[in-house]
Design a protein that fits this description.
8-stranded mixed β-sheet, alpha/beta, globular, 7-stranded mixed β-sheet, Metallo-beta-lactamase, Chain A
Length: 308
């Protein structure tokens, strides 16, 4: 497996020559060997963005993860980190094809969608997927509400790209392309959420946020997603010590993430969905404790790249 690589915040680094990036961005990418899957974190927070001096190293944007599977572009969640990703993608030529998989439609996971530049470029094709709405709602309706008065000055109709909203039921197996599979499960979160396992060639990434665990019992559905995964990205909003005071909020802990990674034999655990009250110093402490428990643990940060 290729070692972990960390870039500066806001500095895209992907395989050399990819048409979606500018000349300057390609210069950075020459330092990275092309692998089957590359994962970049653009937003790692939960609940609300928290920019500032105390969060500058790990970042303050909400959930957004870019996954490159060969030439395929997959994005998990559309939090505020999506804006910076869109700016990088818009610097490339037209004709972008991307799939955005939403865990659920709380604002910290969809608030970046109106600011995603590729949605305003006519030659682009973007599919947006969600599995926690049927049968009461549809994703297209949520997007219209998000971009309607009094919440937003213009409607979802201002998008110029070809946008397809794809509703499914959590538990479905998705095949957006013949060589790419996503297995899904429902997660324990108020209003529902969807966990994903992405499989491409011989590699796999599990994306599991937002979910609340039951102390003393590992969630079998989450274990199935994480089983022997090359990378488990897990909702670690709290510590075990904090969890008792937040039962019912729909989030988990980094210690539970370690327990799941160990039980499921996941090679790496990305501690993700940081509480906005957890500053850089706090997360440094989490990193020190987590790596003692699980050598494959990392703390997700904006600009962090994991190549699989």
């Amino acid at each position: 497996m290729v070692p972990l690589r960390t870039g500066d915040v806001g500095e895209p680094e992907w395989s050399p020559g990819h048409p979606s990036l500018s000349h300057g961005e390609r210069r950075f990418r020459r330092r990275i060997r092309v692998t089957e899957i590359s994962v970049r974190f653009w937003g790692v927070r939960g609940s609300v963005p928290c920019p500032g001096r105390e969060t500058v190293r790990y970042g303050g944007n909400t959930a957004c993860v870019e996954v490159r599977c060969g030439d395929r572009l997959v994005i998990f969640d559309a939090g505020t980190g999506l804006r910076a990703l869109g700016h990088a993608l818009a610097a490339g030529p037209p004709g972008l094809a991307a799939d955005i998989f939403i865990s659920h439609c709380h604002i910290d996971h969809i608030g970046g969608l109106p600011f995603f530049e590729p949605c305003y470029m006519p030659a682009n094709q973007i599919r947006i997927w969600a599995g926690s709405l049927l049968s009461e709602q549809r994703l297209a309706d949520v997007a219209r509400i998000l971009m309607s008065a009094p919440l937003f000055p213009s409607g979802e109709g201002v998008f110029k790209a070809k946008i397809t909203f794809c509703d499914f039921q959590s538990g479905d197996v998705l095949k957006p392309y013949p060589d790419l599979t996503l297995r899904t499960v429902p997660l324990a979160h108020p209003g529902g959420a969807t966990g994903y396992r992405l499989e491409y060639r011989s590699r796999s990434v599990a994306y599991v946020t937002d979910t609340e665990h039951s102390p003393g019992r590992l969630d079998p559905a989450v274990l199935a997603l994480a089983e022997a995964a090359d990378l488990l990205i897990y909702d670690c909003n709290y510590t075990d010590e904090e969890f008792a005071g937040h039962v019912g909020r729909g989030h988990s802990t980094w210690q539970e993430g370690v327990r799941i990674a160990e039980a499921a034999r996941a090679q790496r655990l990305a501690i993700f969905h940081h509480d906005p009250n957890h500053d850089d110093e706090f997360l440094d402490g989490v990193k020190a404790r987590a790596t003692q428990c699980h050598p494959g643990a990392i703390v997700a940060a904006e600009g962090l790249i994991v190549s699989l």
